Amino acid sequence: MERIRFLFSRDDFYHQRGYWVVARVLSDAGIEVILGGIQTPEEIAQTAVHEDVDIIGYRLMDASPRVVCEILFDELKKRGVKDLPIVVGGIISEKDEKLIREMGVKEVFRPFDSFDKLQGRVKALVRKTGK
């Protein structure tokens, strides 16, 4: 398998420490992390296509997961992108988690999830797509 290309974006300027720690942990696991920084769902979709990524990670703290995930899936669909795993991290309510998983989000990571879980799930999701 080629090196995994992970687009990692976030929704705000605040709560940055976790974003940088996760990026480092994934990079240390041999995953190429493309730092999108603060991006709208439209910008994420554009970057995902431009960078030919294998998976998208979206750190959400301030945005409504239901709204931004729906927009992200719509933007990817407009660009003909199918079966690209999307994982979300942050403080996500159980109700929102259920809704975004129904939309197609493959994994929801929360603060204090183990780094082993994060690395393992990202690698497993990409293997599952066959990229």
List the topology elements:
Blueprint lengths: L4 E6 L5 H13 L3 E7 L2 H11 L3 E6 L4 H14 L7 E5 L3 H10 L3 E3 L5 H15 L2
Parallel strand pairs: 1-2, 1-3, 3-4, 4-5
Architecture overview:
By secondary structure, this protein is of the alpha/beta class. The chain has 5 helices and 5 strands; from the N terminus they run E-H-E-H-E-H-E-H-E-H. The protein has helices at residues 16-28, 41-51, 65-78, 94-103, 115-129; strands at residues 5-10, 32-38, 55-60, 86-90, 107-109. The chain has one domain (5-129): 3-Layer(aba) Sandwich (Rossmann fold), CATH 3.40.50. The protein is globular.
Would you summarize the structure shown here?
With 131 residues, the protein is α/β, with parallel strands linked by helices. The protein has one domain: Rossmann fold. It is 48% helix and 21% strand.
List its traits:
alpha/beta, five-stranded parallel beta sheet, 131 residues, Rossmann fold
Structural class: alpha/beta
Top CATH class: Alpha Beta
Q: What is the helix fraction of residues, given as a range?
A: 40-55%
| Total count of strands | 5
Outline the low-pLDDT stretches: none
Helix-strand sequence: EHEHEHEHEH
Please tell me the total number of domains.
1
Question: Globular, elongated, flat, extended or rod-shaped: what is the shape?
Answer: globular
